[in-house]
Request: fold
Amino acid sequence: MAGKANPGPAPVAQDRGQLGDARQRVLSAVADAADPGVTVAEVAARLGGHPNGSRAHLDGLLADGLVASAPSKPSGRGRPALRYRITAAGRRALAGRTGSDYRGLAHAFAAHLAASGDADEARQVGRAWAAELIGRARDDELPSDTGERLLELLADLDFSPESGTDAIVLHTCPFVEEAREHPAVICGVHQGLIDGALESWGQPGRAKLQPFSGPGTCRLRLGA
Reply:
């Protein structure tokens, strides 16, 4: 009998750079798509084959943080189709670089911060992290919608986000092992990151992180 799933997101996959031929073609199709991204049907039309095959590959790429998804703008009846965009991690994977050279250093830093036990300091670290990331981004490269900006930021940082109606679901976490042991500190860094990013975009206090909110996920409640 299968064991009970741990609450909270999964660790980030370490072998994302090893893409199979089919998955690499799907990721390349997403990379070539213009804003606001590409749908399952559009990927299937470009590559051929049944849409279910393209959907399965996109689901795998989403789980590995190589693409991000968000609903299309509503038009008429029915649920809007999801549109997929490549993340920075996805571009690294296409180039054969996984970013693993810095993974050990990042984990060592997370463990050091967790050992301090200072939740206020953790949030300030998160805000400083946001300032560095936002400062490097060019305005013409950012989506106009704040929610899409936040989704893209989280995808680039390997949280494998999925957009919902009132929340963003996070399927992976780069520091989930440390967060399980020291949630107030590590999750505090992530809340500080989100707070700092939203403040820089003129939307302060609009999202609340809900760590380990379900099997395999954390949630970021929007409009808080």
The first strand starts at residue 10 and ends at 11. Residues 100-222 form a domain with the Muramoyl-pentapeptide Carboxypeptidase; domain 2 fold (CATH 3.30.1380.20). The longest helix spans residues 119-136.
